[in-house]
Write a structure and sequence with these properties.
Keywords: Membrane, Transmembrane, Transmembrane helix. It holds the Pfam family SBF_like. It comes from Streptomyces liangshanensis. This is Bile acid:sodium symporter. The chain is mainly alpha-helical. Helices cover 76% and strands 0% of the residues. Helix 9 runs parallel beside helix 12 and helix 12 runs antiparallel to helix 13. The longest helix has 31 residues.
C-alpha cells in the first residue's frame, strides 16, 4: 500500500475537547443555574436551538444517498438491529442492577443511551482508519440518524414512558421541535444544501453552540430541582463499570456476529463501528425535549459512554489498520477501497471531527 496514504494515528487516546466544553457548561450551570425569568429565557432559547439543530440536520442529510445505500440491505439491517433492538434489550437487562449498582434514575439514563441512534462522523472516521468499507459506514450512520428521529421517541414511549415523567405532551413537542424542523430542512435542502456545504465550519460552531445551550438549560433545571443529590461517587463508579461491559458486549457482538453472518472484513469493520456507538449530538437535544428537568441525569450516561467509545474505538481502529488485507474481493480489491478511506482521513481530518458527533 502506498505509504503516503497511511493515516497518521494519534499517539494518545483522544480526550474529546467538546466533552471538556460540555463539562465546563455543566460546571457553569452548577455554579450559576438559571432561575426565574432567566430560566424561562434560557428555556425559550434552548427550544429554538433544538429546532435549529434539527433543521440543519435535515438540510445537510442527503436522503438520496441513504436510499441508494440501502441496496446493501443486509449490512444496514444488521446495524439498525444492533442500534434499535440489541442495545435496548441490554439496557432493559441492566434494570436488574437496580438498586445494587444503579439508581432508578441512572438506569433510565442508561436505557435512554441504548435508544439513541448511531453516530455518523466517528463511524466514518474509525472505519476509514481501520481500512474498512467507508461508503457503508457513511450510509449506515446517516440512515441510523434519519431513523432515530422517529424510532427513538417511540422506543422511549414504549420502554420508559411515564416512569420517567415522559408524557404524551412530550411527543407533541418531539413533532414540533424535532420532526417538523427536520422535514423542513429536507424540503429546502435543494436550495440551501450548497450554502451549507460551503460554510461547514461556521455551521459546526452553530451546532456545538446550540448543544451547549441545551446542556446549560437542562443542567440548570436539574440543579434547581435538586436532582444531583441523588448521585454519589459510588453510583458513578457503578455506572462506568456497567457502561464498560455494555460497550465490550456490543463491540464483540458486532464483530463476531458479522463474521458469522458471512460479511467480508471491510463490512465487518463498518458494522462494528456503526453498530456499537451512540450519538451525543442527537441524544442531548432529544433528552432535553423528552425529560425536561430530569434531562441532566438522563444524558449523564450518554456523555460518559461517548468518551469511552472514542477511547476504546481508537485502540481497535489502530489494531485493525495493521491487519493483513485480502488481495482481491468481488468487483475490485479491498486494498484499493482501504486506501481510498485512508486518503479521505488524511484529507479531511475525519478523526478530529469524530469527537464532535
Amino acid at each position: 500500500m502506498n505509504r503516503r496514504l497511511t493515516p497518521r494515528l494519534p499517539s494518545r487516546l483522544p480526550v474529546d475537547p467538546y466533552i471538556l466544553a460540555i463539562l465546563g457548561t455543566v460546571g457553569l450551570a452548577a455554579l450559576l443555574p438559571a432561575s426565574g425569568h432567566a430560566a424561562r429565557a434560557a428555556g425559550g432559547a434552548s427550544t429554538g436551538a433544538v429546532a435549529l439543530l434539527f433543521f440543519l440536520y435535515g438540510a445537510k442529510l442527503s436522503t438520496r444517498e441513504a436510499v441508494d445505500g440501502l441496496k446493501h440491505w443486509r449490512l444496514h439491517g444488521t446495524v439498525v438491529l444492533c442500534t434499535f433492538a440489541v442495545f435496548p434489550l441490554l439496557g432493559l437487562a441492566a434494570g436488574g442492577l437496580v438498586p445494587y449498582l444503579l439508581t432508578p434514575q441512572l438506569q433510565t439514563g442508561l436505557l435512554f443511551l441504548c435508544l439513541v441512534p448511531s453516530t455518523v462522523q466517528s463511524s466514518i472516521a474509525f472505519t476509514s482508519i481501520a481500512r474498512g468499507n467507508v461508503p457503508a459506514a457513511i450510509v449506515a450512520g446517516s440512515f441510523s440518524s434519519l431513523a432515530g428521529i422517529v424510532v427513538t421517541p417511540l422506543l422511549v414511549a414504549l420502554l420508559i414512558g411515564g416512569s420517567a415523567g415522559v408524557s404524551a405532551d412530550a411527543f407533541v413537542r418531539i413533532v414540533a421541535q424535532l420532526l417538523l424542523p427536520f422535514l423542513a430542512g429536507q424540503l429546502v435542502r435543494r436550495w440551501i444544501g450548497g450554502f451549507l456545504a460551503r460554510h461547514k465550519k461556521v455551521l459546526g460552531l452553530v451546532d456545538r453552540g446550540s448543544i451547549l445551550l441545551v446542556v446549560y438549560t437542562a443542567f440548570s433545571e436539574g440543579m434547581v430541582a435538586g436532582v444531583w443529590h441523588q448521585v454519589t461517587p459510588a453510583r458513578l463508579a457503578g455506572l462506568l463499570a456497567v457502561e464498560a461491559v455494555l460497550l465490550a458486549a456490543m463491540l464483540s457482538l458486532t464483530w463476531f456476529g458479522a463474521g458469522r453472518l458471512g460479511f467480508a472484513r471491510g463490512d465487518r469493520i463498518a458494522i462494528q463501528f456503526a453498530g456499537s456507538k451512540k450519538s451525543l449530538a442527537a441524544g442531548l437535544p432529544m433528552a432535553s425535549v423528552l425529560f425536561g428537568a430530569h434531562a441532566s441525569l438522563a444524558v449523564l450516561p450518554l456523555m460518559l459512554f461517548h468518551q469511552m467509545q472514542l477511547m476504546v474505538c481508537t485502540v481497535i481502529a489502530k489494531r485493525r489498520a495493521k491487519d493483513p488485507l485480502p488481495r482481491v474481493v468481488a468487483r475490485g480489491t479491498e486494498t484499493g477501497a482501504a486506501e481510498t478511506g485512508a486518503e479521505e482521513v488524511v484529507r479531511t481530518g475525519a478523526l478530529t471531527g469524530a469527537v464532535r458527533n
